[in-house]
Each structure stands twice: as C-alpha cells, then as structure tokens.
Amino acid sequence: MKYIFARNRHLVQRIGFTSITLVAFATVIPIVATVIYILIKGGPAISLEFLSGFPHDGMRAGGILPAIIGTLYLTLGTAIFSVPLGIAAAIYLSEYAADTPLTRTIRIAIINLAGIPSVVYGLFGLGLFVLFLKFGTSILAASLTLSIMTLPVIISTAEESLRSVPQAFRTVSISLGATRWQTIRRIVLKEALPGILTGVILGLERAAGETAPILFTGAAFFLPRLPGSPFDATMALPYHLFVISTQVPEMPIKIQYGTALVLLFFVLTMNLIATVIRSRARAKRQW
Amino acid sequence: MEKSLTWREFIITRLIQTSGYSAIVFVALIFFFLIREGIPTLGEVDMSSLFNLRWYPIEDYFGILPLLTGSLIVTVGAGLIAVPFGIGTAVYISEIAPRWMREILKPLVELLGGLPSVVLGFLGILVLSPFIRVFLDLPTGLTALTGSILLGGIAVPTVVSVAEDALDAVPRAYREGAWALGATRWQTIWRVTLPAAKSGVLTAVMLGVGRAIGETMTVMMVTGNAPVLALKLGSLFSPVRTMTATIAAEMGEVANGSTHYHVLFFIGMVLFLISLGVNIAASSVVFRAKKRAERILS
Amino acid sequence: MVDKIVIENLSLQYSDGTESLRGVSLGIHQNAVTVLFGPAGGGKSTLLRCLNRLNDLTEVKASSGRIMIDGENILDPSIDVIALRRKVGMVFARPVVLPLSIRENLTYGLELAGEKRRAKLDEAVERSLKLAAIWEEVHDRLDDPAIALSGGQQQRICLARVLALQPEIILLDEPTSGLDPISTGKVEAALVELKKEYTIILVPHSVQQAARTADHAAFFLQGELIEYGEGKSLFTAPKQKRTEDYVTGRFG
C-alpha cells in the first residue's frame, strides 16, 4: 500500500499545490473584486459637488464634505496624541528597558490594548472622556479614544524598526563619546525613521476607518456647519456610510457607493504611501 | 556646556520612561472604567436573570445568553472560514509561490486588513446578503452565516501575516534536511515545516479569532440583530445578535446611569476579559515555544 | 619611560558567572605598541573594554581593582566617562562605519564634543585621514556614503574616526581579522607611525601579527596574565612554559 503512494508522490504534490494555489487565489481575488466593484458603482457619484458640498434632503442628495473634513480632523487629532507617545514608548522599550518583570508587564499590556474590541474602546471613551472629564461628544474625546486604540500598533512597529538597527552602531557611537540619547537621536532614530513612519501611517489608516470608537464619543449624524473647535462633534466618513446604508430610507444607492469609494480611497492612499516609504527605505539602507 | 547637555538629556530620558509605562496605565484605566460603570449591574440585576434566555431591555429582560451564543456562533463560523483560507494562503505565499507572486500577494492581503469594517458591512448588506437569501432560499439574508463569511474575511489577513511570519522563521536547514531524505516539497510542508511553525500558526489563529470576536460594525450591519439563542446548526441561517453589536446599537439610546446602561458596560467588561484571555493565551504559546526552540538550537 | 596606564589587580566577573579577568596587574608604556595576545577567552577584549569603560554597557556582576591612567583611577564612578572615551579610542574587529558619509563619520565625535567650526572640522578630517594612510584614496569623495568603501578601507576610516578626536591612547581589538594581507599591512604600517605620538594597545588576530608589531607583549590565558616582556624576547625566548607552548603552536 505504502509503495503505491510512494509512486504517486508527485501526483499528490501536483494536486496539493494546485489546491493550495486555488485557496490562495480564492482569498485574494475577492479583495481585488471588492475594490473594483466599489470603484465601478461609486465612480459615477464622484463629482466636485459631491466632494465639496453639504448633504441635502436628509442625506439623499448633495455632498459629503463635512464627513471628509471630519475624518481628516479625527485622523489629525489621533496623530497628535498617539504618535509622540507611541514613538517615545517604543524608544523606551527598545533602547532603555531591561528585561525585568515590569518590562514584561508593559509588553503584555501592549498586546492587550491591541486586542481590545473597538466597541469597548468606544465605551471607555464614553466613560472617561465624554462623561467623566466632561469633554462631551467632541472631536477631542473621539481623537483621544482613537489614539489609545492606535497606540499598540505604533509602539510595536516602531519598536521593531528601532531594534532592526544594528547594535554595532550604538557601540561605536558610545565609544566615540556619545551619550545614550545622542546615539538614539543621531543614529538609531534616523535609521529607524522610515519603518516608524510606515507603522504610523498604517496605524492612522486604521483609525480613519473605524466607526465603533467614535459612535458615542464624537460622531454626529448631521451638522449644518463644519466643526469649529475640538469640543464640537463632527461627521465622519465611516459613520456616515454606516448611517446612510442602514438608517436612511430610500437612500440612493449611487451615493452610498460614492461614500464607500471616498472612504476606500482615503484608506488605500495611506496604504500606498506606507508601502512606498517602506520599499524605498529598504533600497536605500546603508547596512 | 556638558552640564546643560546632561540636564536636558535627563528630562528627555524621564519623558521616554514615562511614555514606556503609559501602556500599563491605559490598560488599567480601561479596566477601571469598565468596572466602574459595569459592576453596578450586579447590584441592579440578579445573576439568575442575567443568565436568562431573553434579551429585551425595554421590559427589563437582561439575559445575556442569547448575545453570548450570537457572538459564539458567528465567531466559530468565522474561524471555520479564516483558518483554512488563512493558513492555506500563508502556506502558498511562504512555500509555493514564486518570488514575484509573493511581492504582489503580500500587499494585497495587507490591503484587505486595511479595509474598514464598515465598508465590508456595507457590501454585506447590498451584495452578500441578497445573494445568500436567494442562493439558500431563506426569508432574510441577514444571518449569522453572512456575518461569519465577512468576519472570516476580516480575520484572514491577521492569520495570513502571523502564520506566514511563523513559516518564514522555520530554519532553512529543516527543509533541506527533509529534501535530502527524499521528501517532496509537498511532504516537507505538511510533515516538517508546518509542524515546526506550529506555535506561530496557532498564535495566528488565536489572534484571528480574537479579531473576529471583537468586530462590531460588520456584524451589526449584516447579522440581523435578533437576540435569539443560537445553539442549533440551523441558527447559522437565521438572524442573531452579538455582544459587540448590542453595545453599539443600544448605547446611543440608553439613559446615563440606568440599569440598561450598566448592563451594556457589563457586557463590555465581559468582552474585555475574553480578549484579555485570548491574548494572554496567544502570547504564552509564543513564549513557551521560543524557550523550547532556544533549548533545542543551543 | 613612564607608564601611561597602570592596571592594578583588576578582576571582573560577568553576570552570567563567567570570570573574565583574575587579578591582572600590568603597566603599559607610553608611545609604544603593547600587544595582548593569547587563546580565545583569555580576557584580552574584556581588558580593552575596561580601558574605555565600554563594559558599563554590559551586565557585569562584580569587578575590583584599579586602572590608573595618568595617575587617575578611571574605574571610579565619579570620573567623566565621556571625556575618557575621547581620550581612549577604540577600533573594533569588524569595520563598523556609521550610516553616514565618510566626512560625517570622521566629524561625528567632534560634533558630539560641540565642535561646530567648519574650518576646524575640515582640518581634523584631513589630518586623521592622512594619519590613517587613506587620505589619497578618499579625499575626492568625502561626501560619499562610507559603506561604499571596501572592508580594508572602512577599517582605516574607523581608525581615522578615532584619530579625529586626538586621543592619547588607541585600543585595537583584532582590527585586521577580516582583512586581506595588503590592507592588514597598511594598518600595521600606520600603527608603526602612530606609536610615535600615541600609546597603542593591540589585540592581534594571530601570533605572527603579535610578533611583527609588538614593542611589549603580554600573554593572557583564561583571565590571568601569564607573562609580560619585551616584544623581541618574549616570542623568541619566553620565560614561562605556557607562553612557549602557545607561541610555538603546541596549543591554541
């Protein structure tokens, strides 16, 4: 019996490889199809008026400018809080922290922050920022919530990037009379920057597309004006898409797909920028 | 000059250290607030009615079992999709695909990971759900199955990237040893490489499942939002409601401080603990495997 | 001839238990090449790393003894370590150029020390490249990335980098171990010139290199100093049996 199988070994391999290849393509083709589908169905909706106007007629007509601006504000707000804190924490873990129980606790904490469901972040943001600190439903509360959610992504990619810088550089720098911080600033951080930047952009991309954390902390269904201060609530693309696809009766399909397309475009552009930065940095590396 | 340099450096070092501790602070803060607003539930609703079979807050029925089973069935379904497709794709990318194909596939899978969940839910409503309704001849397309399919798609990028890293990390020597003994590449993959990457692949699955449990918008949009107990196989083809969707859907309507409000936070607490458990399990798997690997290789 | 460095009863143990140095006492002469040689694990690199306090970065369990440089104990926690590292420069076994241009590699140490004047920096660059015998080869491409140079050239850049800080003592830990014989010859020739102005301590990668370059030589075995003497006589007529066994190749 075994001998028969042995003779058919290569046939088994052909079948096996083919099925695995099919599986892989079955995973990837829907991705491409999805993007193309949204492009086709949403394309017709895109116009200057759509991108720069306000919604009319209960969202059924007009543009989505406030949602676009709102998402930009939220992404910016998230960046302001999460980027400096995240990079600093990554520097701590990579350059300063020894392998102590405290450090291991920090790492476990980061892994946990990464796994918390987005809606739980929304609850937390509601409890702390909106109610307890009395920021109200605001860009501020939503940005802070999104920042904590984005922190683990930034910290882990930044740390990995810092660690990939060869240790020899640090030793040489110290032997030439540099302090630890001087070494970090002049050599390590400079070399790790593209990788850190990639991680930041990917983290912010996620934050831009999230709905649940902003549901009760900053998102508003309809605002007649653009938000004027961080304490104002705001419309946002993901929330807008959610609302018009589930809660507005007789919503024109074209506008729904148009909104989805704009959100997708936003996210994909960030993805593209991050990928480009990563591959260019890899080519220019001096080690 | 030297003195001011060290003074400035001292402040910077302190700031960096404080940032390092911040992760612990935030986790503790989140846990604290969930407890603060969720614990009153135990005072306002007694245990037996919490584990009741009816979730109907308007009439003060706070049985969370339907929600638990809703999350469970959708997650299990997602896992059944994400595991074969995720691991299969990872094996293809890591072991079978030619170099140029890898460079195309990896970014594409990463792209899927970046798609906002609300966009997938949106397509679920407009495309997948009518398809399922027609194809399976159901009264509605908004079912646990629809949710599972989409969640599987959301979990796949996580599974693929972690599993692919794990497969990549298997030393070349293992594969070469197997080839030298006359194994085909296929045999090598299944008998040598994959078992060697076992712990990494397991971690990938756990993280993917963790992602599925925590997903909110997609399930809220396509699973129909009917809080009924989902224990039979047939439940897959009818509407359910997950814990995450419950919080998202009802939080906007509750009065601050009411029992309903507290119960929603309680559910949030449960979700937090579940994800804590999954993540600790996943990281302990990696940790133990690494120690074993260190012992073997040294 | 006064001793530039006096090592008094130096012992050091790493935190994983390995004892690296055991009661080493040694005097290093000024303006000469002192060679520390012996089989692996002898403590030579450890001793070198003590001399510029680079061991501060590693997990050291216990250390005792003194190292006096110009009469000052450099192991004392109160001394200025940064200034020490400028005074005692080190060249490592693998040529590690920083991910910067050639010029920036050389001015790195000076800029850290606060030197901003363009003229001074340029002058230091030219001086140190000439001392390291590599000025002719790179003077027209100082702004190119240092990584573009060959291994031998990179190592001489590392030497020039140290020289730019105008140290008094230069430590070299197997500096030619990865280099071809021609580059090795260039480095050894540079050392012969440099010892007129600097105190040089070299860990060679072979006994032959030790014999070629040493004015004074110290034989280390498993953390202990076995024998110390004049370069010429130590290799031809060692006093200790163990030294003789190693030098003649009976063990290694």
How would you portray this structure in words?
The complex is a heterotrimer of chains A (287), B (298) and C (252). Chain A is mainly alpha-helical and 287 residues long. Chain A has 2 domains: 2-45; 49-284, MetI-like (MetI-like fold, Orthogonal Bundle), CATH 1.10.3720. In chain A, 76% of the residues lie in helices and 1% in strands. Chain A has a two-stranded antiparallel sheet. In chain A, a hairpin with a 4-residue loop joins strand 1 (55-56) and strand 2. In chain A, helix 7 (139-163) crosses helix 9. The longest helix of chain A is centred in the N-terminal third of the chain and has 34 residues, at 9-42. Chain A is globular and about 70 Å long. The model of chain B has no long low-confidence stretch (mean pLDDT 85). Chain B has a single domain (42-297), classed as MetI-like fold, CATH 1.10.3720.10. Helices cover 77% and strands 1% of the residues of chain B. The longest helix of chain B has 39 residues, at 259-297. Chain B is mainly α. Chain B has a two-stranded antiparallel ribbon. Chain C is an alpha/beta fold and 252 residues long. Chain C contains 10 helices and 10 strands. Chain C has helices at residues 44-51, 81-87, 102-112, 118-131, 135-138, 151-163, 181-194, 207-213, 231-236, 241-247; strands at 3-14, 19-29, 33-37, 60-69, 72-73, 88-91, 169-173, 199-203, 216-221, 224-230. In chain C, strand 7, helix 7 (181-194) and strand 8 (199-203) form a beta-alpha-beta unit. The mean pLDDT of chain C is 89. The chains are: A mainly alpha (287), B mainly alpha (298), C alpha/beta (252). Chains in contact: A-B, A-C. The A-C interface holds A 166, 168-169, 171-179, 182, 186-187, 190-191, 285-287 and C 52, 54, 57, 82-83, 85-86, 89-90, 92, 94, 96, 98-99, 108-109, 112-113, 145, 147, 158, 161-162, 165.
